[in-house]
Please model this.
Amino acid sequence: MGTGAITEYVDVAQIALYAFWILFFILVGYLHRKASVRDGLCRCLPVSSAQVSAACRHPKPIVWRMARASA
Model:
């Protein structure tokens, strides 16, 4: 067995590569779930259509009121 070899068939670089890919796909899944929640998509929808429209209702738009500028 050479330098960095854990067994005859597995070395440290191979384990590091597999760990990278596993963590990368976990990160992609996590960010995808966060983006879905941010965009307002419902994760679990109720059964009836009336409950769906109530559950997936968008919030009221924000209205910004400017202070009056005195010159």
Notes: Helices lie at 12-38, 49-55. The radius of gyration is 25 Å. The first helix runs from residue 12 to 38. The chain is about 50% helix and 0% strand.
